[in-house]
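Memo to structure team: turn this sequence into structure tokens by end of day. - J.P.
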Amino acid sequence: MEIDEIRQYCLNKPGTTEDFPFDQHTLVFKVMGKMYALIGLEKWEAGSPTINLKCDPEKAIELRERYPDEIYGGYHMSKKHWNTVVINGPHLTPKQIIHFINHSYELVVSKLTKKQKEELNKL
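Reply from structure team:
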């Protein structure tokens, strides 16, 4: 998958915005102001594309065990709640990457306040 594909997919999700809250090299996607995906642009430019995604803690452990070379504890993130996913690795398909993005988005949406969820549903 290319970075533009991932970017467009994320931006098409309701309530999603993108910005660079940390530095000019870390692209962050948020739903209603809450992070669900981070992309280190320098890694992409260096040919080692990854994306950090929020994940249910039990599922995170399972995925890391199943794909030890392509999914590991979130780089510079809470390892319990975030995974770093290697894009274009030999075992993960674009469909799986999309599934992981969806899981991250849905996990964050599930934690929004009632008011935020109502606002999101209006978008």
